[in-house]
TrEMBL record:
PROSITE patterns noted in UniProt: HTH_CROC1 (PS50943)
Transmembrane segment boundaries: none
SUPFAM superfamilies membership: lambda repressor-like DNA-binding domains
Pfam families in the record: DUF5753, HTH_31
An example Gene Ontology molecular-function term: DNA binding
Name this polypeptide is given: Xre family transcriptional regulator
Domain of life: Bacteria
Domain HTH cro/C1-type: 20-75
InterPro entries: Cro/C1-type_HTH (IPR001387), DUF5753 (IPR043917), Lambda_DNA-bd_dom_sf (IPR010982)
Signal peptide: none
Length: 291
């Protein structure tokens, strides 16, 4: 297990969890429940660590190293991995001023996006969040969050814009964005705001790491499937894929292989009815010129 490949704390934490799972199985504990008694902890605690959702505390780590019968060199490697992960600067979404906005599951997408190598996003009747302009986001917040404070809406816009850094960083995410034609037609925020949004989509679609596909009205039933979801693929041989479904009361994410396969089939089914990248840019340009 290398400690130098991934620079994301989330990815390192996930790698560590997968490695500890492998070591448990090698030690003869076929289930987390079987390992819980000698480790003197609950099965849930082992699950959280092996799924990469938390670091093992010092007491649990010591017991794992002993119960799994690890050598001094292997134990040192695992400790080095944990130190590396914990030394990474706190992620921007953990800043205190964002705390209220990400409560209740609404912040699950940030670490997934940040740690991913590839993203497949179906945003339904909205422009993909990673490609929304400031004016477009402000218009959505002004209508959808009118009962919230001005500060809440301001921070919401700020967070959505900060997410987009993953598309332009040194090693950018490879993104395939798919959305319905009905996402392009509403004049969100007025003509100037929507024109700027459509122009931005055209500009981003020409970047080598971004592919856009539109499901046109002519696709029939496929053009009515508006429930947003995102598939994530992470770097590293041991990193599992994940899927996140956006819901009104918080996002739901899972690393279940069966669910990932199901949603990947859903994405591929929709892609069969979508315009190609060139045709998509042409449609966006046509709608923009008609404004």
């Amino acid at each position: 297990m290398s400690t130098s490949v991934n620079t994301s704390a989330l990815a390192i934490q996930r790698d560590l969890g997968e490695e500890l799972r492998r070591l448990r199985l090698e030690a003869g504990f076929k289930t987390q429940t079987a390992a819980a008694k000698p480790l003197k902890c609950s099965q849930n605690k082992i699950s959280y660590v092996e799924s990469g959702k938390r670091w093992p505390d010092e007491a649990l780590l010591k017991r794992m190293l002993k119960v799994y019968g690890l050598s001094e060199s292997k134990s040192a490697e695992i400790r080095a991995t944990i130190r590396t992960g914990k030394s990474i600067e706190r992620s921007w979404w953990d800043e205190p001023r964002y705390r209220d906005l990400i409560a209740g599951g609404l912040g699950k997408i940030f670490p997934l996006e940040d740690g991913a190598a590839k993203i497949w996003n179906h945003s339904g009747t909205f422009i993909p969040g990673l490609l929304q302009t400031e004016g477009y986001i402000q218009a959505l917040a002004a209508f959808g969050q009118r009962d919230e404070s001005a500060l809440h809406r301001e921070l919401f816009v700020e967070m959505r814009l900060r997410r987009q850094h993953i598309l332009t960083r040194t090693h950018p995410v490879l993104m395939t964005g798919m959305f319905l034609e009905s996402a392009l037609r509403p004049v969100v925020g007025g003509r100037e705001v929507m024109r700027e949004q459509l122009q931005h989509l055209q500009e981003m679609a020409h970047k080598p790491n971004i592919t856009l596909r539109v499901v046109p009205f002519s696709a029939g039933s496929a053009a009515a499937v508006g429930s947003p979801f995102t598939l994530f693929e992470f770097p590293g041989a041991h990193n599992k894929a994940a899927v996140l479904r956006e819901m009104s009361r918080g996002d739901d994410d899972t690393h279940s292989a069966a669910e990932v396969r199901r949603m990947r089939r859903r994405f591929n089914d929709l892609a069969e009815h979508a315009l190609g990248p060139g045709e998509t840019i042409g449609l966006i340009e046509e709608i923009e010129k008609a404004l």
